[in-house]
Design brief:
This protein is of the alpha/beta class. The protein is 62% helix and 11% strand. It has 25 helices and 15 strands. It has a 6-stranded mixed sheet. Helix 3 crosses helix 4, helix 6 runs antiparallel to helix 8 and helix 13 packs antiparallel against helix 14. The longest helix is centred in the first third of the chain and has 54 residues. The chain is rod-shaped, with a radius of gyration of 44 Å. The model has no long low-confidence stretch (mean pLDDT 81).
Length: 657
């Protein structure tokens, strides 16, 4: 720099001759005469000068020093330069210097300053090495700081992305747990699994990339733009053109690929659905020799996904070669325009190389951002799919102000209950009324599709009634807290559902670890006879879905699980269908003896199961067509009589009577 800190006394006197009065005042303001270690007296630059003042002084001193340097080179000394001819000499020499460009003016001034420093006794090489050491040390410190910042950034990005994935999975899972059957029917199980795994993984990955790259790239781009503009404004249009072309390319590719990304996630849902159905139904598939058909079905779903993925991947493969072409094209254009400037003397080769470096930094930062754009469309689609689940309003939820029964005894009353599914105009149940009392067995029977299972699923609010009300101990179940309601109901569904674990963990599902309670429940459910045949007894392993136990064993464990809860209301939704008549009879007798104070509601297909029920409700096409005991219904209800006669002979019915 021309203003490195010192200026010789003699050189200053002649340089001032070339200055205007204003310029001389500026020089005298910031330079003062002082003794130094290498000269008795020199002009020393004021250390308190600001950056703006230094830049102004640099411009002024560079021009005058360059003129003085050219004069000395031509004349061999300062002789001949005086106050009278200084203005004329400056005008002529500056005109000559500018014909070679502004960079030539600066180089001429710097050469003069270097010679002046050497004459003053300054070790220029030592000065340059000291400068390099200082800057090098700064660069090392900045590099270490950048490394530490990168490590911290990577750690924070990993933690944030992992936490985001964890929190989303929790929110989606909790939301799904709160779904009623109606809401579950809106999403397939395969789709919900994909949304909880693949979709959230896409969001997790893009979150990590956002913090690693997207937060870093703009800083690098802004820094590069500032340095590029400060180096050479005339070439800045090349960077603007390159960025514009790059963004246009990314926009075009996104428009092409975005629709396919949405289709891709749906196809993953479909693939999971097909795979899940095939794996679940392997015994049936083998029994009907449908392996070839199912293989073709899976291949079809797999091929559709593959073709969509190939299309999106092929579309995105154009991005990296195009970006490389843009980068190289930018470098070539900068060299071409820079060579022209260097030839005219308006810029230096070093500045051209620096500008190329800054341009590459700017373009690389935009390339990082466009790399995100490859993942972003799919992540956006995944986010939309997650949002679809999270924004679902639960149809069944607690009332704002819940009401608790004065005393919970287990009385259940249907009062003119009508129910229809949300997507149907036809009633499944219509004006159903009956009361199930504690200490009694209330049975529901009817032909297939008459609404028996639907009726009992309304009690724990798996669905909500469309009209009418269901009362639990004289309180509308819609006004009760759902946890309180369900805690007092032992529900055994048609299909026995077991969870992976042990027999013990399934019987004591969600309950305290009570060995006595577990054994008593198993005894009542007539499950001990097969439990003790297993090697581990109660610690025997139960596979996922209970596939390693028979249908009857699965039903008995499901019944034992309900009994272990010791609820006030037992609901058995055709839960004895897989039991033989002997086990069915013994189990019902054990239930009668051990849960005599509770309300028992049984949905049954077999007349023999409900012959001795205190109350039998006969449903036909969603309507109650008879309520009473077996004997009463045989006399007064034709529908019940037809069902009974279709299963048992007159003699058997007479004997039972």
């Amino acid at each position: 720099s021309v203003t490195d800190g010192y200026y010789g006394i003699e050189e200053a006197e002649y340089t001032k001759m070339l200055m205007t009065d204003e310029e001389e005042a500026v020089f005298d303001k910031f330079y003062t005469v002082s003794e130094t270690e290498f000269a008795e007296e020199v002009y020393v630059l004021d250390e308190g000068i600001s950056e703006e003042e230094l830049a102004s002084l640099e411009t002024m001193l560079t021009e005058n020093t360059a003129v003085l340097s050219l004069y000395v080179n031509e004349n061999g000394s300062f002789e001949g330069l005086n106050e009278e001819n200084a203005v004329q000499i400056k005008e002529s020499k500056m005109a000559y210097l500018l014909t070679s460009g502004e960079e030539n003016v600066k180089n001429t001034a710097l050469t003069f300053m270097k010679n002046m420093y050497e004459e003053m006794g300054v070790d220029v090489n030592k000065m340059q090495i000291s400068y390099l050491k200082s800057k090098g040390l700064n660069m090392i410190i900045l590099a270490l700081a950048a490394m530490i910042a990168s490590i911290i950034s990577g750690f924070c990005a990993s933690k944030i992305s992992a936490s985001t994935g964890r929190d989303l999975r929790i929110k989606v899972f909790e939301k799904v747990l709160g779904f009623s059957n109606a809401e579950m029917n809106s999403f397939s199980t395969a789709s919900l699994i994909t949304r909880c795994t693949n979709d959230i993984q896409q969001i997790q990955q893009i979150t990590g990339m956002m913090f690693r790259i997207v937060m870093f790239a703009p800083v690098m781009a802004v820094g590069g733009i500032i340095m590029a503009v400060s180096t050479n404004v005339s070439l800045s249009w090349i960077i603007a053109l390159a960025v514009l072309v790059l963004l246009s390319l990314v926009g075009l590719l996104m428009c092409i690929a975005m629709p396919k990304f949405k289709i891709m996630q749906t196809l993953i849902d479909n693939l999971n659905l097909v795979a899940r159905e095939i794996l679940t139904g392997i015994p049936v598939i083998r029994a009907f020799s449908r392996e070839k058909f199912e293989e073709e079905r899976f291949d079809k779903a797999n091929a559709r996904l593959m073709k969509t993925q190939l299309f999106t991947n092929r579309t995105m493969t154009f991005m990296m070669p195009s970006m490389t072409l843009i980068m190289n094209g930018t470098a070539v254009l900068i060299v071409l325009m820079g060579a022209k400037g260097a030839n005219e003397g308006t810029m230096m080769v070093g500045d051209i190389m620096a500008f190329i470096s800054y341009a590459m930094h700017i373009i690389m930062s935009f390339m990082f951002i466009t790399m995100i754009s490859i993942m972003l469309p799919r992540a956006v689609i995944s986010a939309e799919r997650i949002e679809e689940v999270l924004k679902v309003e639960n149809e069944i939820k607690n009332a704002e102000a819940t009401v608790e029964p004065e005393k919970i005894i287990g009385k259940v009353e249907f009062r003119n209950v009508t129910f229809r599914y949300s997507d149907s105009d036809e009633n499944v149940l219509e004006n159903v009324s009956f009361t199930a009392m504690p200490g009694e067995t209330t049975a529901l029977i009817g032909s297939t599709g008459s609404g028996k299972s639907t009726a009992v699923s309304l009690i724990p609010r798996l669905y909500d009634v469309s009209e009418g009300a269901i009362l639990f101990d004289d309180v509308d179940i819609k006004d009760m807290d759902m946890k309180t309601l369900r805690k007092n109901i032992g529900f055994v569904p048609q299909k026995g559902i077991l969870f992976s674990g042990t027999i013990k963990s399934n019987i004591l599902f969600g309950e305290e670890d009570d060995e006595e309670l577990m054994k008593k429940a198993a005894q009542i459910a007539q499950a001990e006879e097969f439990i003790f045949t297993k090697e581990g007894n109660y610690e025997s392993h139960i596979a996922q879905g209970g596939v390693n136990v028979s249908g009857g064993q699965k039903q008995r464990l499901s019944i034992a699980r309900a009994i272990a809860r010791q609820p006030k209301v037992y609901i058995f939704d055709d839960s004895f269908s897989a039991l033989d008549y002997k086990t069915d009879k013994i189990l019902r007798k054990a239930l009668k003896e051990n849960v005599s104070n509770s309300t028992v509601i049984i949905v049954a297909q077999r007349i023999s199961t409900i012959l001795h029920a205190e109350k039998i409700v006969v449903l036909d096409d969603g309507k109650v067509v008879g309520v009473g005991t077996h004997d009463e219904l045989m006399k007064n209800c034709e529908v019940y009589r037809q069902i009974a006669l279709s299963q048992l002979s007159q003699k058997e019915l007479g004997e039972n009577e």
